[in-house]
Automatic annotation (TrEMBL):
Pathways involved: Carbohydrate degradation; pentose phosphate pathway; D-ribose 5-phosphate from D-ribulose 5-phosphate (non-oxidative stage): step 1/1
Catalytic activity, as annotated: aldehydo-D-ribose 5-phosphate = D-ribulose 5-phosphate
Gene name as annotated: rpiA
Protein family: Belongs to the ribose 5-phosphate isomerase family.
Quaternary data: Homodimer.
Entry keyword set: Isomerase
Binding-site residues for substrate, renumbered to this chain: 28-31, 81-84, 94-97, 121
Keyword Isomerase: yes
Role summary: Catalyzes the reversible conversion of ribose-5-phosphate to ribulose 5-phosphate.
Superkingdom of the organism of origin: Bacteria
Species annotation: Catenovulum sediminis
NCBIfam families given in the database record: PRK00702.1, rpiA
Protein name as annotated: Ribose-5-phosphate isomerase A
PANTHER family assigned to the protein according to its UniProt record, in alphabetical order: RIBOSE-5-PHOSPHATE ISOMERASE
Stored Pfam families: Rib_5-P_isom_A
Length: 217
């Protein structure tokens, strides 16, 4: 099975968590795009969605799925999203597509985070994938210097502006042995909007597509 087949398989496997009349939290990225496709036949059965990016919102609306403003939704059951890395504790690195902040906000409101990945994303220790950090533009150099003090090598993601009008620093060579602590520490740097470690809000269920099928843990 190639990687796209695996992404499609794991996205389709997540459909079993979609209940009638539910509001579905929808992430961002190529794996989530397959989930949005798989939602299409259920468009009439669900109440609608809350979305983590302009890109996903556009795709959902094109299928006739209503996208609610998160401020009008006090609670909803599931948030489905991909990840760039996921460890056995269900901590993740996210933000390869620059949607990390809205993903963190939408997933914070969800009762259950269902992470959908192919097996290339499974790791024992987070950090091989460069850690995305969303930063207020005027703080970019300051934040980069602070990250260097923590031992990371930040690289400005040229030409990318987030949906929130900010920039991304991709941080290489971080030893993420304590994801919860590093997530909090990075968020303490003035000018950081959020970082791509999802440990305080880890996944509840991880679906992993392998050559043999979809595993759940
Ligand atoms: O900002 C993007 C998101 O965090 C994505 O969920 C993540 O990058 C995984 O994307 P993909 O499914 O395309 O590998």
């Amino acid at each position: 099975m190639n990687q796209n087949d695996k992404k499609r398989a794991v996205a389709e496997a997540a459909i079993k968590y979609v209940e009638k009349d539910a509001i579905i939290g929808v992430g961002t990225g190529s794996t989530t795009n397959y989930f949005i496709e798989a939602l299409a036949p259920l468009a009439e059965d669900i109440q609608g969605a809350v979305s983590s990016s302009e890109a996903s919102t556009e795709k959902l609306k094109a299928l006739g799925i209503e996208v609610f403003d998160l401020n009008q939704v006090a609670s909803f059951d599931i948030y489905v999203d991909g990840a760039d890395e996921v460890n056995p504790q269900k901590h993740m690195i996210k933000g390869g597509g620059a949607a990390l902040t809205r993903e963190k906000i939408v997933s914070a409101v969800a009762k259950k985070f269902i992470c959908i990945v192919d097996d290339s994303k499974r790791v024992d220790v987070l950090g091989k994938f460069p850690l995305p950090v969303e930063v207020i533009p005027m703080a970019r150099s300051y934040v980069a210097r602070e990250i260097v003090k923590l031992g990371g090598d930040p690289v400005y993601r040229q030409g990318v502006t987030t949906d929130n009008g900010n920039v991304i620093l991709d941080v290489y060579n971080l030893q993420i042995t304590d994801p919860l602590a590093l997530e909090a520490q990075l968020n303490q740097i003035t000018g950081v909007v959020t970082n791509g470690i999802f440990a305080a809000r880890a996944a509840d269920v991880v679906l992993v597509a392998t050559d043999k099928g979809v595993d759940t843990y």
